[in-house]
Design brief:
single chain, 145 residues, mainly alpha, two-stranded antiparallel ribbon
């Protein structure tokens, strides 16, 4: 019974968490690890069948799943000169911006991209990400607020 109470209390506390200037990433080491892996072109997995293989961009997907906790680190990488890394940074940021805590803060305004992620569309996608961050500095740079 006590164990069930502790689990329920943990769920309630996690669900009540909001973005604030005092909130820190849950695991800086894990975030740093995946940030460093973004430019590595072989840090991927492939799924699907032989006729329709799909690439799983492991670092971007993991950072995206971390949500609000990874956003600041991702924003700091928006100025990378590596085309591949920039595509994955923007992709991860788009995923992370859909975190429930972020959506509460932005009234469901997540980073939406109008074009496919390619080296040719990097400047446009980077600008959309920067514009989104300008609208929500409390999300992108919470320590500055």
């Amino acid at each position: 019974m006590t164990r069930l109470f502790i689990i329920l209390l943990s769920v309630i506390l996690v669900s009540c968490t909001s973005i604030s200037k005092d909130s820190a990433p849950l695991d800086n080491e894990e975030i740093s690890f995946y940030i460093e892996k973004l430019p590595e072109r072989d840090f991927v997995d492939v799924y699907g069948d032989d006729e329709n293989p799909k690439t799983w961009y492991t670092a971007a997907e993991e950072l995206g799943q971390m949500g609000a906790d990874a956003i600041t680190a991702l924003v700091q990488r928006l100025h990378t000169e590596d085309e591949y890394e920039l595509m994955l940074v923007v992709y991860a940021l788009m995923l992370a911006s859909q975190d429930a805590r972020v959506m509460d803060t932005t009234q469901d305004d997540y980073l939406q991209l109008d074009v496919v992620l390619t080296p040719d569309t990097n400047p446009q996608n980077r600008q959309r990400a920067l514009d989104w961050c300008q609208r929500y500095p409390q999300v992108c740079m919470p320590s500055a607020h």
